[in-house]
Design goal:
The chain is mainly α. The protein contains five helices and two strands; from the N terminus they run H-E-E-H-H-H-H. It has a domain of 76 residues. Strands 1-2 form a two-stranded antiparallel ribbon.
Length: 111
Amino acid sequence: MARTASDQLSTRATPIVKDDTRCELCRREAERYTVHHLVPRSRGGKLGPTTRLCSTCHRQLHALFSEATLARELHSLDLIRANPEVARFLKWARRQKGDTGFRVRRANNRR
């Protein structure tokens, strides 16, 4: 039996609604968010996909990686989370008490 368009719509998964009160990377609540271009604007991502990050996560990403690396290797939230350096930072960040405004240091081996 052929499926109609209305049957196909009813079987699709419900879209995931983003939680507006949490950083999309560390999942901690923050008062303010920044917009992170998954492909940096300087590398052609001006109109590309973005994600909302707390300022600490955003600074940490740019402290760890050059824009070339972000564009070439870390152009999605899943790829960013899977990176061992980011995973180590996220594990540490989730244990911090209070808001997301803690200090970020530039990595010695920024790539």
